[in-house]
Amino acid sequence: MDIALIIALATATGILAWRHWALLRGIRQISHLIRSDAPAAAYTEDLPDTPSLAFQTLAKDARDLIAEATLGRALESSHRTLLESLLDQIDDALLIVDENAEVRFSNRAARRLFPSDQPHTGRTLIEVCIDHHIAETLDLAWRIGAKTQERLHRRVSAAPDGRLERDYLVEAEPLTGYSIGRGAWVLVRDITLQVETDRVRQDFVANASHELRTPLSILIGYLEMLDESSKPTPATLRRCIPTMRRHAERLALLVEDMLTISKLESPESLLNRDTFDLGDSIRDSIDQLTPIIDRQHARLHLELPASAPFLGDRLYWDQVFFNLIENALKQNPEPGLNVTVRLTPADGRYQIEVIDDGMGIPSADLPHIFKRFYRVQKDHAQTIKGTGLGLSIVRRAVEAHHGTIRARSHPGRETAFIIDVPQPLLTALPGSDHTEKAAPDDRAQPVSLATGEDSPAATSHQPAA
After folding, report:
1. If the chain, 465 residues long, is cut into consecutive pieces of 10 residues, what is the mean pLDDT of each piece?
2. SS3 label, residue 364
3. Crossing angle of the two packed helices 234-265 and 390-400, in degrees rounded to 10
4. Which of 10, 44, 324, 396 might form a disulfide with 264, Cβ 3.0–4.6 angstroms?
5. CATH code linked to domain 195-265
């Protein structure tokens, strides 16, 4: 009896030990499945070898849940990668912060705007941006619980257009319902071009108003004087009418120049492209300026090729050459001024230079001379008549023909305006006897201004005795 009992107890103990070992083995295998990062395909191995059906069911359910979680993590990672790629394409700097103002994400524009040797993630916003204005904008958004904006001016180390002083618009708005808690997004947008455009527009309105006010005031004053006089004397009329006509003509010229600039800046504006000779356009412009040239005893030197065919709007090019030569004459009214107009074809382009040996342009004014209404010598601006739009029209006309213009000046020695425009494939005017292409080394040859014939020396247009 005792032996049977001992045997029964030993058998029961063995069975319990075996089940305990099987249970522990199953738990370890399930634990291994849960902790494993292997893909779902790796879970095709046999289930734990246990006699309990419930335990096998538990192991199967665990395997299915792990496979589902792994797939979910893969989809989430894919979505996050796609979202980050899309945000990196935004030109504006975007940062997402958590409730502690620590950066959780920054796109490529933000990393470029706020460069750092360390990653942005995990650092506070003030550490990343190093600008208290941005941090204050975020704090305000959190306090009021709504979107806030603030303008920011800062200097950057590099910029695509070379302007290191930039203007930015900083926007911030709280985020709720996300895993980051009471987070927020911060957007920093570069508005330098917009600010510059607004400033130019405001300056244009102010300058145009000033330019229009002076002649209008004079006209109104003379009209009031004539209106108050019961019977104006002939001497009074002789004094008033020429002055009124002169200022009325100035108003008409100013309005015409403003309309020309408006047309050149309009995206819908189309040029009347015709084939003409640039040399003829230069000569015609000089012919119109002959009275001023003779009055100032100036000398005009032309260095032009025998032919310079061009495809463009002749009206605008006449105005370009007229404005550049007239500008040289007006800025240097003293007798004896030398003005050289040189046209050189080279490498499929035309280089046109208008050079004078007058008083020159100060280096501080050179970057601004093509702005509307800008005057270099403001102290005697009243003695130099003009609308202040001539060089602005020149630049826009040249750019409309896909060209560039620049200026250099050595005060007291030389001032030059250099135009560079593409040379058309057609190198002879319609109706001419030659239509072949010009040789690449075709250079400007001096041409007689009076007769149009070739001359062995540079031609000078001198005032009559």
Report:
1. 78 79 70 56 48 62 74 77 82 91 91 89 91 92 91 79 83 77 88 84 76 83 81 82 85 79 67 89 93 92 92 91 92 90 91 93 86 65 60 89 92 92 70 42 41 39 44
2. coil
3. 30
4. 396
5. 1.10.287.130
